[in-house]
Structures are given as structure tokens and as C-alpha cells.
Amino acid sequence: MVTALDVVNPKPHPESIEKILQKFHLSKEEAVFIGDSDVDQQTAQSSGIKFIAYKNKEIGNDAYIEDHLDVIKLLSKII
Question: For residues 44, 59, 65 and 36, what is the CA-based torsion angle, rounded to 10 degrees?
Fold first, then answer.
């Protein structure tokens, strides 16, 4: 987990996402950001990773979920 205290530049700057990708040795294609706000969507966009909207259909997204368990269903469709 990365919080605002762990970065110089808070969301929507990509710094927090970049720290996570580095820590786990992931490429942008291997990660998704799940969020419920415009700032979360902007963070994913500025980071260049896919965005899954959670319980907020009003924000732009690559996918939408109502329940965190829905992520498993999404992953099973693409694996």
C-alpha cells in the first residue's frame, strides 16, 4: 500500500503507481487500478494502466465492478 505520506506528488500524479510497479517488478500491462473517483481514474490514466471503476458508473473506465469479487470474474475472462 502506498499513501500520500509515501510520495512527493499525490494522486493523480503517477508516482504512487510507479512505486508499486517497481516494488513488485510489474509492467504497466500487468497491473490495474481499481477506484471509485475521478482522481482514481486520472491516476490510472496518468500512469498508463487500465482502470476498473468500483460502484461508480459515472467515471470513465476500462471495466466496471459492483463487488471486489467481480475482479475474479473479469480476470477469468481474459486468462
Answer: 70
pTM of the model: 0.89
How far apart CA 49 and CA 8 sit, in angstroms, is 20
What single-letter DSSP state applies at residue 14?
T
Q: Note whether 51 and 60 are within 8 A (CB).
A: yes
CB 69 within 8 A of CB 40: no
Closest CA to 66 of 78, 75, 56, 51: 56
Q: Return phi, psi of residue 59, to 5°.
A: -95, 145
C-beta separation of 26 from 56 below 8 A:
no
Give the pLDDT of residue 1.
84
- Beta-strand ranges (E) seen in the chain are 32-35, 50-54, 63-65
